[in-house]
Design a protein that fits this description.
The protein is built from 12 helices and 39 strands. The protein is of the alpha+beta class. The protein has 2 domains: 5-382, 6 Propeller (Neuraminidase); 389-531 and 567-645, 3-Layer(aba) Sandwich (Rossmann fold), CATH 3.40.50.1820.
Length: 646
Amino acid sequence: MPRIRPVTPEDLLELVLVSSPSLSSEGAVAYTVTRLNYEANRYDSSVWVADSSGYKPLTGGPGDVCPKWSPRGDLVAFVRKPQEKKGKAGIYVVRGSGGEAWKVFESRFGFREIEWSPDGRWIYFTQRAPLGGEKEWKDYSERDVLVIDSLPVWFNGEGFVFDRRVGLFRVDVKSGVVEEVARGAFNVVAYSVSREGRVAYARTYDELKPYLHEVVVRETDGSENVVLRGLSVAGLSWSPNGSSLAVHARDVNVRGFAAHFQVYRLDPSGGEPECLTCSLERNVSNTANSDVRGPSCSKTVQWSDDGWIYFLVSDAGSVHLYKVKPGEDPQPVIAPSCGVVDEYSVSGGKIAYTMMTPTQPKELYLRDGSGDRRLTGHNDSWVKSRRLIEPRKYVVEASDGALIDVWVMDPSDSGASPWILYIHGGPKTMYGCGFIHEFQALAGAGFAVVYSNPRGSDGYTEEFADIRGRYGERDYKDLMEVADKITQLHRSLDPERAGVTGGSYGGFMTNWIITHTNRFKAAVTQRSCSNWISKYGTTDIGWYFNKDQIAKGKPVWEAIEVYWEKSPLKYVENVKTPLLIIHSLEDYRCYVDQATQMFVALKELGVKTRLALFPGENHDLSRTGRPRSRLARLKLIIEWFKENLL
């Protein structure tokens, strides 16, 4: 039997990331397996296949992701990412039975979502391509000047994008000839191909409001019609007979970015979209937090051959798979009591899906006529050899009567534990039932971890999620009341040895907390916001997200007092808490000035502080950063809390 020991930061390197399932018509599942390569400081991915006989690799990698079965179920298309910085990505095809893969098409600009045409002749794909064509395009580092006329200037994880747009293309599998399907000054955000060869795609149409989309149907003769406008679209799927579209979208006109996604049925020949899921009062989207996800190209909505539309729903910390038919109520299909159905693929009356729990990393599962069974055990030995802490759930009643879900991951069997209040980003995401290696590593280092879903979180009603214009108010009260009451409910938590941390919105809230109370003995702010005024013009989404969330739709010059009122930097003179600031130098969601402003101010005030900057990393450092950076970040956090809490 393996020796059971606490989880360490280094254990991240031994986890296997399972993602992107694709189910064939014959019941075989192609999926992506990803491992962290510390020596090469990268992620190595390959395509695997699982069926009734077991699971095995189909390709050797190291950059193979996003497998998709052909309609006949004999071929698997996938994307091969380059390992060198200026290399080309390729679309490859391999026989499902194995053998050598062959290249269909390659491009230096990579590929996003790929999809076979129903007749198997074409592979459709999206990519962010230069407006002026690939031949004339130069890398930004090779130009003397960047002349910019449009927004956004840059985008997190992609760098400068002002002269590139996401277009829709297709490549002939046999000849390798590429055709443009949709390309222009807009960005394509989702698409679906019907059995008759009609293409529906959603695109942006206003650079100042890139979250608003229009759905276009391209007929087989090349003509196009706009069939829907004004929603924020995440996914599309044709009905089996091609008469209707399932549209995964949200209406931001009432509640802005606090609005829930829904599934709508749309008749492309005319008429208003019909909401099929509004009765759920939950977000039709997967917003559960986890730091062990691999690359995925799974669709957000799928219309199956038997007439059901499948989709995911976030509900109080768990993510469930649902289905619905026009004229019927939504029905849960796979609803774990505490778990996250992360991705899924439907074919031939079967469902392949990935799922995780707080103590079980993602693995691949299959539902068929005989029930549910786990197909893979990539992480079984990892799980058996570590002491994984099962979180205990509590419900805290806030001062206004609302109920707040709270989880405590406590490694101590007795005695008073130092503990950390961990705050999620978003704010419209949720903690709960996802596997988070960082929480287990913090517990392994001797800290209890307290995490919750205060107002602003997802998994509940739109009203619960809507804190627009009220950042630092009800959400702050919820967190402080959680901190007050959890030490009474979970007696082993030491009230005198509490820390606080969080990233993105959680970083903002960490900054807000330490500028409004000195109750925490140490803090770590990550990829945070400290000044809404400067964030407005530096972030890739600031000119519209900040307006919606902070100032009731007003730009910074019309409401500078409001932006400043909600900025932690305004209250920095109150800080006494030692603060570690972690930020990435290529974070274009919360630019690095948010970190340096806080650091300089605390230095001037004589408060204990430390700044850790990560070159070459972006806003997603804790989830998809390079292995060495992720390990260094986690060690810095643990060392800081040991230095100031123990």
